[in-house]
Amino acid sequence: MSASLTSPLPFALRINCSLNLSAQARADMYSMLADMASTKMPLSQLLRSAIDKFRQRERLRGINPDSTYGRLVASPVIYVFESMLQSGSRGKTLIDGLKDFVPTNEFLVLKAAESGGNAQLAEGFSTAAKAALSSQRLMSIVRSGIAKAFVSLVLVIGIVYYMAGYMAPKLRASVQGLKLPDAAENYFSSVDQIAAWLPFGVVITVGVIALLFWLLANLTGNVRQALNHRAPVFTAYHAFVASSLLNALSSMLATGMRFSSAIGVIKDNANPYVREGIERMFASARRGFSTGMQLSRSGLIPAELTILIEMFAEMNTLDERLPSLAERSLIVAERRIKRLSNMIATVLMAVVVLFIVWTYSALMSLGDIKPT
Q1: What's the CA gap between 192 and 150, in Å, rounded?
Q2: Is the pLDDT of residue 1 over 70?
Q3: Residues 235 and 178 in one domain
C-alpha cells in the first residue's frame, strides 16, 4: 500500500492504491510525468489533459470514476493527478498532492526537484522512477526469501506430522504390553504431546505465513509506517532508508542547495525515524564535525558505507558520489534480506535433522526390549 495508515484517502481509493499502485505502476506514472515535465507546456495543463483521457478510457470500460465502485477499480493515476491539481489550487505545489499516494523516499526526491524548474523536475521524476524500481527489486528478493522459508516450514510440518501423527502411533501399537526402554518411553510420551499440540501449531503456522504475505504486500505502506519510529541497524529497511536519503540528498544538492538546507528540507518531510537521525546530524554539526562525519554518525547509514562517505567528504567528491552510494546501500539491503532468509531456512532444516536424529535414537533403543 502506498498510502499510509493515517491517510485521509477514502477507503475504496486506499484499497485501489494497495492493489494497483505498485512499485512498477508508480515507476510508469513517474516516467509519464517526466515526459510531461520535459515539454515547454505547463504541467498542470498536461495533467488535466491526461485526466480527461484516463477518465474517457474508464467510461469506455463502463466504469464511472466518480462512483465508489469506480474509485475501487479505476486507474489510480486519475486520482493521483487530480490530487496534484487540487494541491496546486490550494496554494501548495503540485508535488505536495502526491504525499498521500507515494512512499516518503520517492516524495522527498520529488520535493527536492520541484524548485529547480521543469528540467530539474523531469530529472526528479526519473529519479523517483528508479527509486520505485529499486523497491520492486527488493520486493522480488523478499518474495524469494519468503518462498524459501515457506518451503522449509512446510517440510518441517510435513515430517513432524508424519512421525507424530502416523508413524509413532503404529510403532507404539506394535510394542503394546512390552516394557520399553526409557529413551523410547520418553520419545512416545513427547510425541503424544506434540500430536496433541500439532493442530494448534498448524493454525499458528498458517497465521505466520499469512502475516509474512501481509508484510510483503504492505512493505511500502502499513509496515513502513510501523517502522517509521524504529528501524534496527541490521535490517534491510535500515539500508533501504539510507539509499532513499542519499538519493534525495543528491537531487537537492544538484539544484545548488546547501547541504544544511537540503537536510532541513528532508527533515521537514521525513518520518520520525529519519528526523531523529537528522537531529543527530545537527548535533554533530554543532560540535564541528565534517559533512561526512555528520552522515556517518547519524545512525541512518549502514556501517558498510560510513568509511566511504567520510573519505569522499574529505576529498570534496561526496556530492557526485551520492548516487553510487545509494546504489551500494540497496545492495547492502539485498544482502541482509538473503542472509535472513538463509538463516531461517537453516534453522528450520536443523529442526528437521534434530527431530529425525531423535526419532532414530528412540527406534534404536527398541532393540533393547527383552521378550516377556
Answers
A1: 26
A2: no
A3: yes
- Residues 85-124 have pLDDT tens digits of 999 889 899 999 998 888 877 887 888 778 767 888 888 8
Judge whether 112 lies within some domain. no
Q: Do the domain assignments include residue 128?
A: no
Distance CA 98, CA 78 (A): 12
What value does the mean pLDDT take over residues 9-33? 84
Is there a single domain that holds both residue 233 and residue 306?
yes
Structural domain contains residue 120: no
**Residue-wise pLDDT tens digits, 317-338:** 888 888 888 888 888 888 888 8
Percent of the chain with pLDDT over 90: 15
Q: Are residues 91 and 138 in the same domain?
A: no
Residue 225 binned pLDDT confidence (cut-offs 50, 70, 90) = low
CA distance 96 to 86: 10
Asked if residue 222 and residue 158 are part of one domain, the reply reads yes
Give the count of domains, the chain. Answer: 2
187 and 303 share a domain?
Answer: yes
Residues 216 and 303 in one domain: yes
List the domain range (segments joined by +) for residue 194: 134-372
Highest mean pLDDT among 41-55, 165-179, 357-371: 41-55
Examine residue 248 and state whether it is found in any structural domain, yes or no. Answer: yes
